[in-house]
Amino acid sequence: MELRERRLAQIVRDFMESYVLSQEIGRELRAGRLSFGSVARLVGDAEDSALYRLKEECHALFRLDDSRPRTEVQAEELFDLAVGALFHETMKFREGFYLTDSYGPRLQRMMAEGSASGPLADAFWRVFEAGSRRMLESEAEAEELFRETRDQLLIVLRQLAASGAVARSLVEDAARSELVFAMPLARMLADIYGTAGRGYQLAVDSLIENGHYAEAAAVLDQPEARAAGAMDGGLPFARGMASYYAGDNLAAVESLARWREEGSNSPAIWRQSAAKVLTALAQTVELSDQKLAKRALSLASELTSRRRD
């Protein structure tokens, strides 16, 4: 997998994480139960904050590249600038919230007790009130900027070459993707990749290529993916491979046999991987279950012969 694809996929994940956190923070703030720990998860000056990671990743990846179309580079530059603005706006919110949350209650208590009074207390109270107003303004500005930046990210994804890593970042948590981009996942994939089926296929290819068979099976088992025609025949393969690595040898052979019987036009690399797994499985159960071992070897031989054809 290309490094650029992996980094872009991580940018998509971190943007979605940041977006969801910002929505949670807005709700908690309005409900009067927001904690500074929640704010720190969103924004800060270290990698344990989602927006810091996003900002650093964007700055490292989105730079002028004269070898690529100018319109594509401009879309990335604008997204990079928007992420930078988001970071600084939410840092202003963080500072305002810290002032309001940490100093405000103490000052109120001291003024109520009479231990804080006079010009200094009055000046401090004005600073506190001004900081509280700026905090609320920053939260509102960041919420709007998040929506605009989300739309710009879609523009960037449409203009880039199809990437299995990016498609995977969208389908691995469908509910989160739909929440962030405010549309059904199938429609989003069709918007980016031309058809929903192509988007699902890219994601499944990426998962299988990296050995995430159970996750690939979960995607292929989604009604939306089936409706889109994603990887017709791929589900029993993914289930069989996942079963093998989970230690369920019987289920592995049954699923891979079903996949073989369906005669789907699967990639040669899949047949090679399945044949290797079946051969290893047969060696493992040779003494404990000769019937299963024989069946696994026979299936492996069929897959190997088909590969030669």
Structural notes for this entry:
The longest helix is centred in the N-terminal third of the chain and has 44 residues, at 70-113. The radius of gyration is 26 Å and the shape is elongated. The protein contains 15 helices and no strands. The two termini are 28 Å apart. It has 3 domains: 3-161, Four Helix Bundle (Hemerythrin (Met), subunit A), CATH 1.20.120; 162-231, no CATH class; 242-309, no CATH class. The chain is mainly α. Helix 13 runs antiparallel to helix 14 (268-285).
Care to count the β-strands?
Answer: 0
Share of helical residues: over 70%
CATH architectural category of the largest domain = Up-down Bundle
Whole-number mean pLDDT? 87
Q: What is the total domain count?
A: 3
The low-pLDDT segments are none
Oligomer: single chain
CATH class of the largest domain: Mainly Alpha
| Main structural class | mainly alpha
Shape: elongated
Helices and strands in order, then pairings?
Elements: H1 3-31, H2 36-42, H3 50-61, H4 70-113, H5 119-159, H6 164-171, H7 174-181, H8 185-193, H9 196-209, H10 213-220, H11 223-227, H12 234-245, H13 249-262, H14 268-285, H15 290-308
Helix pairs in contact: 1-2, 1-3, 1-5, 1-6, 2-4, 3-4, 4-5, 6-9, 8-9, 9-10, 10-12, 12-13, 12-14, 13-14, 13-15, 14-15
Describe the structure using short key phrases.
309 residues, mainly alpha, Four Helix Bundle (Hemerythrin (Met), subunit A), 3 domains, elongated
